[in-house]
Structure prediction request, 179 residues.
Amino acid sequence: GAEAQLAAVTVTDANQSMHAEISGDLAMAQDDFDAAHAAYEEALAIDPESAPALLGLGRAHADTMMVRFYYAPRDEEGALEAGERAAEALLRAIELEPGLIDAYVVLADVYRPPGRYAETVALLEGGLARNPDDVRLLTLLGRALFDLGRPGDAQRPLRRAYEIGPIALTYRYLGWTDF
Prediction:
């Protein structure tokens, strides 16, 4: 796991960024979002072009957003602020590594609670232009189209996802669209 990776890394100038990223991953595994934020920020201070560190930072802000949206005490303003920070980091990660599918997945989850469905559709269509057979992106696109009030349009990506690899979530959304 992350602890073994962290122990195996000898800290030198060349791998300090990776060490900080692994520290962030370990903090995330322990639900310590503050420590994760700090570790990913440290990695980005060393290497501002690190897509993995930006993805990690985006995940940390996304998890912070979800906690503030869904758990007491509810903090909608803080959640939206964390969501914007997550979006900024994730969009930068996608810019640096357009094939980084996890960044699209996390960002789609960030856009959903505040109802940014049209942005989610555009994001996922962009991700699918680069990764046309990714089941996660296809399924999330179907969900976003359904959320946008377009269940008929949701059928195409959901059917494609099912053809590639039937997963329970795809079945669920296909049921919602009267497949």
